[in-house]
Design goal:
Rossmann fold
Length: 491
Amino acid sequence: MTTPPTTYNNIDTSRDQSIGALTTLLTQATDALAQGGPELAEHAVQLREMVSRPPRVAVVGRLKSGKSTLVNALTQHEIAATGSLECTMAVSMYFNGAPARAEIHSRSGEVKRIPLSEGPLEELGFPLEDVDHIEQFLPNAQLQRLTLIDTPGTATLTVENEERTRRVLVDGQQDTKRASSWADSLVFLSDSAPREDERLFLSQLGMTPLTSVGVLSRADSFGAGAFGQRDPLDYAATHAENIAAQLGNSVLEVVPLSGFLAESALVGRVNGTIARTLGHLASLNREQLLDVIEVEDPSVIVPGLSAHMRDELLDTVGEYGIVAARDIAAAEGAVGLVNWMIERSGISRLTQLLTGEMSYFAVLQRAVRMLDVLDQLAGANINTEHVRWVQSVTLSQPGMHFVLLYRSYRNTYAATPDSRLLAPLRAAIEATSAAEVVGLSRTASPNQVRAELEQRLGEMQQLAMGLLSAAEDEARERLVVAYQAALRSLG
């Protein structure tokens, strides 16, 4: 019997009210847009699906960086193919839904449906070069909060792999009739800092640092690995901090992750037998452990431990788990082992990011993209007067304040990534109090907050006299509005 996780409750619901209110507002706007005639109704269907679905996270990285393993860990289900090479070479989208099935979309528009049983999709039904993307549906509680896009990779061994990713994630952004498939946030997996070609690709996805998180993959093998003098996960954490410093403010955070430990714990591979076998190794020193892993017959070191049992341990917890978790298994059994693997792997922190603040920023991202589409439709002479009316009513709603701030942040980041306005914009977007709008603690006194807000307003007035890009000038105006609103809230 496998052991389910008992402490994987790292879902952040603090932003749910804001997400719900903004989602309702955007849904009402798409319903209003649909009343403008058949052509607008077609666009409204795509926009409505985009704004009403759970935030969609694109998982991007090099070939064999652990993307599908991460998808399995996040869904707590072996849904992503890790063994079928052909299936890992196509873009796959994962949704909560029943019955369990895969829908393979060809580039010509044909759709082939394949029922899914317990395991992942193993064959495409179309030649790989004819596949646009795959949509997979599974009754899954984790997918109720996040939908996922697993990609074949960037800077991979074949140009075709990157082209498939680019066609769906980059080129697809230009087609408003595919708005429902757009990604809202991004996870980039790598074992080092992104290369220049990868940075360029990531910049073309239209994300911001608030909707992008880096993952330092295979963290349990860093340095000299499990038998090195330094714990590889601790080493990976230091390396992640260094990469975050190199990237500046281009990602929200860099998380060290052992996808293997996370997947193994969360898809139910750990059971009482595994925990007992591992616990029997608790009394061994590191040299003896190394011998257990390397010798043909480990029973000469641990009586009763067969080669099959040893190999099963390696397939479930790996060398790092054998070295670092044997005491946990001996003392706390399967439940303690699973919980240790979840927390130590880094998946808990990554999930907290994706379901918390990043989830809120993802909704701001999609709201801005909806405003972009309305601008495009207004310029396309498709019942322009109706589109302008929808724009006007939507923008007049109080809930759009943070959307407009985020739009300025996105545009400024794209045009001037080293702009001094990015930090104050980010503070204003993340703020939940007047003090936080200007980067002060919530415990700051009203007089301190007022003085800081007035100083910032003065700085914004001075900036108006200098040379600013168009995006920066709009950002300055949005910050003035934010600071004035914060002053009014102080009374």
